[in-house]
Amino acid sequence: MEIFRQYRFDKTLFLAAVTLMGTGIIMIFSSSAILAYEKYHQPFHFYLNQITIAALGLVLILFMIFIRRPFYQNAYFIYGFLLLSLLLLAACLVMPAIGNTNRWVQFLGLRFQPSELAKISLVLFFSFYLDQKKDKLDSFKTLVFPLGILFLFIFLILREPDYGTAILIFLICSVMLFIGGARLKHLLFLGIFSSSLFIFFLFQASYRWERIIAFLHPEKDPLRKGFQVIQSKLAIGSGGLLGVSIGESTQKLFFLPCAHTDYIFAIIGEELGLIGTFAILILFLIFFLRGLVISWKAPDNFCQIAAAGLTMAIVSQALLNISIVLGLGPPTGIPLPLISFGRSSLLCTLLAIGILLHISQRRRRTIKIKK
User: Fold this and answer.
1) Considering the entire predicted model, what is its pTM?
2) Alpha carbon of 293 to those of 12, 72, 286, 328: distances in Å?
3) Which of 59, 283, 334, 357 is least crowded, fewest Cβ atoms below 10 Å from its Cβ?
């Protein structure tokens, strides 16, 4: 038994998300205008694309807030969504390569990255499965089916190749297994097996190992492999406390690659300074805490696991991206949620936020017994 408190969604989480997205739109224009003009003869190219998807995503959130029925909890929707994500990932492998990778599905001039959708579909699937099998999680046989699905997704993503996203998805699902009640010895076995798998794929491509070497010793090849790491640190360091002001970054002038996508946090550090980067971290912290509150107050086991998983998927990706920009990890191609340019990433992140906000409107009904 539960009640649906329409319009009483978590406004703090919503405002934190909108503020992050608004900051991202401003910084995308600041970091990409020159590149857009050089490439498309239109300085607003990336800005207009991002703001269009942002508007579409807000409409999607409003739709999620208004509807009463939790369709995301329906078994047909969950397995259909999972199958769609799987088929789109498989379709990527037969699509024309872009930048020597097969990460996008292309249709009628539009591109979509299915791995972003896979994060949400796997979170919902694991939430549903762990809820249905909560009394049988002591047996490893119960985990064989979801782990099989997980490794099938990971294999397809590694084949794109997208090593960073594969590891991120594995970590998210592993934590969800822990939250759902899987035994520690089973998780330990899973960790050992998965580590062997990821190490194997690490050495299958020389550039992955070279990225790790460049991360550990960027000064050994400052003009090639270590260039991006060094330029990112220079951008962050040159911002100081208050930054050089919006639009005045020098690193975005073709010094820092991927300035409007993977390394936009470095431009924020340069233009808005320590105060700007600290504000971004505070907003993600607020998002994380409110997501945990939504999970804690959710009406059933499925919603608790799903809310925790969706929150973790967004915040862990943000922390991973920021760590890489600060030189605390090798480059992986992971965007900063709600801020980096990326239509697939932004739309799927807003879909996840819409589900979180819908869960926040649901409460377990308490029945008072009169004496």
Assistant:
1) 0.94
2) 11, 20, 11, 29
3) 59
